[in-house]
Amino acid sequence: MISMKYKEILIRKYNYIIGYIGVILLGLSIALLLPLIFLFIFGEESILVRSFLIPAVFSALLGFIMSTPIRKGNNDSHLTLHEGGVIVVLSWLMVTFISAFPFLLSGELNFTQALFESVSGWTTTGLSVVDESEIANTLIFWRSLMQYLGGAGIAVTLLAAIIGPSGGMGLYSAEGRSDKLLPNVFKSIKLIIIIYLGYTFSGIILYMIVGMPWFDSIIHSFSALSTGGFSSRPESIGAFDSLAIELVTIILMILGTTNFAAHHVFLRGKIKEFFKIGEIKFMFILMGITIPVVIFVALFPLYGNFAESLRFGTFELISSITTTGYSTGVDYDSWGSFAVFVIIVLMIFGGGAGSTAGGVKLIRIYVLFKSVVWHIQEHFLPKNIVRENYILKPGEKFYVYQRHITQFANFLLLYLATYILGVLIFLAHGFQLEDSMFEFASTLGTVGLSVGLTSPDAPLFILWTQIFGMLLGRLELYIIFFAFIRIIKDIKQLVLK
C-alpha cells in the first residue's frame, strides 16, 4: 500500500515529465519547418511542402497540449537521473516517429524504411535505405539536420538549460553528458552550442574553399561534425575524389568525436593539458597503432602504392573509430578479413564520452585497459603501499575505484551481449558471419559504414533489428533499461489500491 500523498507526488511528477516532452515536440515542429527554406532554391520540390507542414503542425499541436503543466505552473520538482532518462527515452521515441513522416508523406519510403531513416538520422548512425541520387534535396537536408540536432542532443540539452539547476543536471546526465564544461549547467550547455556552431560554420567554409559545392558543404559539415555520415552523394565522400575534402572531413570527424569538455580545454589554449587527457591520448594511440598496421599488413599488398594505402587506410579507420561512417568508396571485401576485423573492433570501441560519437566509448575501454596494467603493477609493489589510481579528464583527475571498473566492465558485457544477439539475428537470415559482425557493429555503434546488407530490399525484421540497435547504441543501454524499469514501477505504484 502507498499513501495518497505519494500518488499525488507521482502524478504531479509525470505531469511535468509529459510537459517537458511537449516542449521538445514544440522544438521539433520548428525543426520540421527549416527544410522548407530550401524550397525557395529548389522550386521544383515545392510539392514537398505538405510532407513537412503536416508533421510540423501535428508536433506543434501535440507539444502545446502536452506542455500545459509547464506553461501553467512553476515546476519545483527535482529531476533525478532516472526521471531524466524517462524524458530522454520517451522524447526520442516520439521525435523519431514524427520525423519519419516527411519521408512517408513524400511517397519515397514505406513506414519501416521511413522510420529507419529517421532513427538513423537522429542517432547519427548514417546507415541508409535511400538512393541520394534519386531523393529530393529538401529530404537530403532533413536527414543531415536530424543528425546535426541529434549529435549534440540539442533538444534535450536545451531543455536541461530551460529547467535549470534543480532538475537540469539529471536530464543533462541522462543524455550522456557527465562532464560539465563550467560549474553551471546552463553555462555548460550554452558553451557546447557555441562550440558546435563555431565548428559547423568553419567546416562549411573550409569545404567550400577546397571546392565542394555550397549545398554539399552544408550537408557534410552537419554530418561530419555530428559523426553522422549521411551524404548528399551515393558514393559518400568518395564521390568528390579529393584529398583536400577528405582532410577537412577527417578534421571534422575528430572534432565531433572529442568530448566537449576537452574542446573547452583546447580552445583555452591549454594544448599540453588537452593531449594529456586520458581519452584523447588513448584515441591517438589507437590511431597510431591500427592505421600503420592495417596499411602494411592489408592495404599496401592490395594497392601496391604507399600513398593510396595511407590515404584510404587513414580515412576509413578514422571514420570507424569516430563512428562517423563516411567512406571513400573502397571495397571492404577486397581489404581482407584482418582489416575488416580491425574496423569492427574500432566501431565497437567508439569515440569520446560526452561527444557526438557512439560505441562503448573510449573512456570505458581506456579505464579497463589501465585496470589491467594497475593490477599487474600491484604484484611488484610492497604490500604496505597504498596507491590511488586515476586518469586525467578535462580539468581534473578522475580517481578510479573498483566500483568504476565494475560498472564499465558490466556495461561492456551488456553491450557485447546485445551485439552478439544482433549478429545472431543477421546469421539467422542467411548472411555471412563477417558481414553480419560488420553490419551490426556499425548499427549498434551508430557508425554507418556498410558492406551492403542495409538496403531497401533488406528483410523487415533486419531493418527493425537495426532500428532498435541504433536506439540502444545512441541512448546507451543503461538509460533505456532504467527508464523502462522506472515507468513499469511507477505504473504499478499508481494502480495499487
From TrEMBL:
Pfam families reported in the protein's UniProt record: TrkH
Cellular compartments annotated: Cell membrane
GO cellular component: plasma membrane
Keyword terms: Cell membrane, Ion transport, Membrane, Transmembrane, Transmembrane helix, Transport
Cross-referenced InterPro entries: Cat_transpt
One function term, GO molecular function aspect: monoatomic cation transmembrane transporter activity
Protein name: Cation transporter
Organism: Natranaerobius thermophilus (strain ATCC BAA-1301 / DSM 18059 / JW/NM-WN-LF)
